[in-house]
Design a protein that fits this description.
Length: 65
């Protein structure tokens, strides 16, 4: 019977752990990038809404004058 040695099992498990760590790092980086893009878009929308509201308020004040 051919059973793996403790050393080969440790080597294999370390390799799997390294691969899992690398995958987790890639996933975190992707999540950070996506979150940054979403926040940037939300910021742009809020800014646009503020500009639109300010413009309408100015028009309302001008019309009331």
């Amino acid at each position: 019977m051919n059973t793996p040695s403790t050393k080969s099992l440790r080597t294999a498990s370390a390799s799997y752990a390294d691969e899992a760590l690398t995958s987790a790092e890639v996933a975190l980086d992707s999540t950070r990038q996506l979150a940054s893009q979403v926040l940037e878009r939300a910021s742009d929308k809020v800014r646009d809404l503020g500009d639109s509201a300010s413009s309408r308020a100015t028009k309302g004040v001008d019309a009331a004058s």
